[in-house]
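Can't paste images in this forum, so I'm doing it all in text. The chain is below; anyone willing to post the predicted structure tokens underneath?
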Amino acid sequence: MKNKLLLVTLLFFAQYSYSQTIQERKVIPVVSSDKYMEFAPTISADGRTLIFESDQNAKKGWELMESVLDSVGNWSTPAPIKSINEKCAFLAGPSISYDGNTLYYTAFIEGISQSEDIYYSKRINEKEWGEPIRLEGPVNTDEEYEGFPSIAADGNTLYFIRLNNENPYDKKSKENCFTIYASTKNMDDTWGEPEALPAAINSGCERDPRIMADNRTLIFSSVRLGGKGKYDLFQSRKQADGTWSEAVPLDFINSTDNDQSPCIAASGDVMYFYSQKDIYSIGIPIEYRQSINVTVHGIIKDALTGQSIVAEVIVKNQNTGEQFSSFSNAVNGEYNLVLNGGQAYTVEFFNENYLAQVIDFDLTKQEKFATFKRNIDLQNTYQLDLSVYDSDIKSGVDAYVSVVSSKGESVFADTLRKVPGKVLLNLKAPFDYVITATGKKYPESSKVTWKFSSRTTKPLMEQVMNLSYEKIKMTTDVSSITTKQKVKKTIYYNNANVDEVIIAEAGETVLLRKGDRYQVVTSSDKGFFFSSVSIIAGEGESDGMGGYRLAMQVIPVEVGAQLTLKNITFASNSAELDNSSYVELDRVVDFLKVNPNISIEIAAHTDDVGADEYNLRLSERRAYTVLRYLSTKGASAGRLKPIGLGESVPKLANTSEENRMENRRVELKILKIS
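Text version of the structure:
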């Protein structure tokens, strides 16, 4: 399902952060200590998880520590991240992804690393991280130092530093100098070749880049003009054309000491940074704040069981077409997103065992930071509206349908009698299903494999299957009743059982539905009466090759010539025409149009059932009914002479019901040719 949300109408929740006066620098209690150095903080988008490096383990050296903010604004006692610390001989520069599920850092591992490289770990649960994994691709090299990574909120760009080989050391500040690089993911999700950022950022001695949640604001440490002597914090913004603005010093932070490793939660109002061996926080003046962000978080669950599930979350910017993806937490199904104000997004939630869910977020009028909680319930059941049609006439077939899952389970096996050709199937993701349909008079079954796609959002889907009716080959030859010569005619095969009309030329072979009754009529061409006959396709002798031939004769137009109309029927004791009569009468209309110089008699006959006088009047009414129908179709009444003959001129002796049917007839007779 797809939901439309205008976040400006939502209830906003306060971001977990310190209520702090602008430009009031404060040491973070509990996190910072007097005895040890705390360095390189990184914070999650929601502002509740802080990870940093500390030298409190004298034997080990630098270790990564984690602290969590509680509901009243107090940081927990930092805990070492053992799964990472115990594997690495050297650690530095952690950077937590904005969804809180991936931690990037600089590491050296004995026996694996050739130099300091960038590694990452996945969160296992709220208190545990996975073991280090070396970042694949061109970011890491065997010779160079790669460190202090910073991952963008969309996960598509990684910023990091390498030693500035041309200017490795700044003598005045007595600091090592680095160059800031960026690597962007390719379409196949691999990391692209890193490129050094332009001179607006790389002036010669930089380090500790941090890209903010808006993916536009880059804060980094630099020794350059405008600073206060050692490493100071500078800020640059990525412009709409992809260029970076000239870096400006953050004078509300910078001091004569090293000021490094900035990090800001998505709320954008408080910065955490390193200075004087501790981690500080400070309120950010409005003019320095990043673009407005909105965080969206929640739990992805199975709609039926309520169990949390892992899902891929794909975010598409409706304005720019850009997209990024992440995964929900493998343990609790939690997801976290950072979206930029002024934009509109489509967020898609995918798991291969479920139907997808899509939500639109319109932030085009967003004016302040907000946090929104949205839990996602994914369905793993859906319905398939199955239709089984006759391939010729597209009507439902009361077919026998069997549905078997890819697990071999029978889901449905029955004849579609209640609503011919229709059934609503209850199916379950992620299984495929083999659907087979068979029907009487349909010699070949139809089989499809219904494949589930986790990209679909529709709880109701459709599948159409077609069955081909059994056919016979029919060829109709037409000749003159007087000369026996073949006559060119168009043949109309009107199916009396279903809505089907086949048009062909005399001598042309067509396919008719076996067992169906057809009224076969020749065209009404000038000089000849049309001819018609009723057949049942497939009855009679075939030509030995599975085909059937029909011979029809047409009567030349001359005074006195007569034609008995076929399939002209009336209700019992009534002059009202049955609908089946119109096909033949329409041929009479065509005949009169192509032969405008003739006048005809319309003679109606009855059998001998009933009184003579009654049958005479009944036949007269029937003759006039035929006249009125022909007149409504454009035939001139002046060319038509109706006459009722009752039972006076039988065609056959009224000795059987079959003979009486032959006697109940309407005949045309040519009276005049002008």
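The radius of gyration is 44 Å. The helical segments are 82-85, 582-594, 612-632, 657-663.
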